[in-house]
Design brief:
Elements (H helix, E strand, L loop, with lengths): L6 H8 L5 H4 L1 H8 L13 H34 L7 H24 L16 H22 L1
Helix pairs in contact: 4-5
Length: 149
Amino acid sequence: MKKKQSKKKIQSKKKKNYPEKTAFANLEQSSNSVTTPKKSSSGIPKYVADRMARRIFFTAGIPTILGMSVFVLSYIIVTRNIAEIPPSSTIAISALFFLLGLAGLSFGILSASWDKEPGSFFGIENIPMNIQRAKAAFKPATQNFEDKS
């Protein structure tokens, strides 16, 4: 009776050994034909992105830092027996600061002026125009999706 061969032996028989010259020949040919992508001008300009980052730092960063510091401050107050603070109050106050930071993130993005020169200090007049830009940016994608359906 004949013994069954293990899978390893069968697979090792199927492997083909190529010399290094032919093994990497196709790889070198394909790497030479790589094309560099064209830069598109549809992105956010750098001066606008910098303006957004500054606004986000102040309107979202500060409330987020305050939200985290509520835990530290509450811990210090409770451990030194200055006052008795319920944990639910600590969580509620920190959640309020985190929500304020989330609103600040949206405000920082939407209030940035797209002009070369900076806009007003708060930039409230830019919000409706930036909302329209955001809607216009997503409109072609939704039109393509609706056409395929």
